[in-house]
Amino acid sequence: MMTFDDITGYLTQDSGYILQTFIVIFIALLVDFAQRMVLKRLQVQALKTKNLWDDAILDALRKPVSLIIWAMGVYLATQIIQAATQAVIFNAMGALRDAVIIAALAWFLVQLIGHSERNILEKKEDADKTTVTAIGKLLRLSVVVTAVLVALQTLGFSISGVLAFGGIGGIAIGFAAKDLLANFFGGLMIYLDRPFAVGDWIRSPDRNIEGTVEKIGWRLTLIRTFDKRPLYVPNSIFTQIAVENPQRMLNRRIYETIGLRYDDASKVREIVRLVKDMLTHHPEIDTSQTMIVNFNKFASSSMDFFIYTFTKTTNWIYYHEVKQDILLKIVDIVEQEGAEIAFPTSTIHLADKEILKNFESPT
User: Fold this and answer.
1) DSSP string covering 226-283, please?
2) CB neighbours of residue 109 within 10 Å
3) Which of 120, 134, 116, 117 is nearest to 194 (CA)?
4) Is the dihedral of CA 153, 157, 158, 164 positive or negative?
5) Phi and psi dihedrals of 290, rounded to 5?
6) Cα–Cα distance between 161 and 167 in angstroms, integer?
7) 170-228: per-residue pLDDT in tens?
């Protein structure tokens, strides 16, 4: 049976570094397994709380922590191998380890931002999806750029030289990719000005653009048209056109003209009064807005009056239900008063029969 001294002696032999390397890797495996079990139990407890941040932190920690553990384990293993073999290739493992740890921290922050973004959108009903998404994208971009610069510095690259090259190359890239940059800044203006958000119905009187916004990216905005076709619009377009956002209207307007027969001229005044009274007491009409019901025109075949009013709802489907109800009630009022709605007619007046006989008799 091997004693402790025998094991120590074997580990210090020339070939003992293999066993030492195995032990280090095995310990890294145990530590990784332990941290996974601990984080899993903490996640179960975190789900019972209303705090959004503990869920996001624990979800984001698991894989980056594993990466750091394995980076340290592999680094220690390579140090053991280097001490035994004097291999020059392992001299770079220190800087590589630091770069991997920086990448793991950046990975953790990117995942934390992503999980926090999803939690806010899912659990806070009043959260503005467009704003939350924009802030999340900017934070992730900042983390990635910072991590890349720090990693390059760790690996021995001069950051000042990289930035100087970026300044010179940025001019050339700017000319070559001006459309791409225009779309990027167009997307940034959409996020800052917020003329529309995801889920809004928008349209442009300048271009054939109308539909529901499904996604706002840094280069393109995806709009789903009413015939369900996807429409991809470069963001730079929105800096050059006028955009209507019917989704944000306060009311919807009803503006209709109704014509009555000239035979019902004596009943026009009463019909107009009854229609206005009906609109005033209609539960879906916003009486705080402009309401006009007036006779306003002697048309060729009718005496016209118009209604101009606003509904409380802005929902497109329900608005048409309300409009239908109002128009049918106007028809009921006209019929109750013994009048009729006019339609285009022509009246032919025949000349006197005696005059016609004179035209027909020979001269």
Assistant:
1) TTS-EEEEEGGGGGTS--B-GGG-S-EEEEEEEEE-GGGGGGHHHHHHHHHHHHHT-T
2) 19
3) 134
4) negative
5) -60, 130
6) 10
7) 555 555 556 677 777 777 788 777 888 888 889 988 888 899 999 888 788 999 998 99
d(CA 176, CA 279): 61
Say how many C-beta atoms besides its own lie within 10 A of residue 338's C-beta. Answer: 8
Output the CA angle 339-344-347, nearest 5 degrees.
90
The candidate with the shortest Cα–Cα distance to 32, out of 89, 84, 104, 120, is: 104
pTM over 0.70? The answer is: no
Distance CA 98, CA 68 (A): 10
Token couple for 97: 């380890």
20 and 111 assigned to the same domain: yes
Longest dimension (CA), the chain: 153
Two tokens at 37? 């079990």
Domain assignment present for residue 344? The answer is no
In this structure, the answer to whether residues 233 and 267 fall within a common structural domain is no
Compute, in degrees rounded to 10, the torsion defined by CA atoms 330, 292, 201, 209.
100
Number of H helices, E strands in the chain: 10, 7
Identity of the amino acid at 278: M
Domain that holds residue 76: 4-176
Classify residue 227: in a domain, yes or no.
Answer: yes
d(CA 219, CA 185): 9
Euclidean distance between CA atoms 18 and 60, whole angstroms: 34
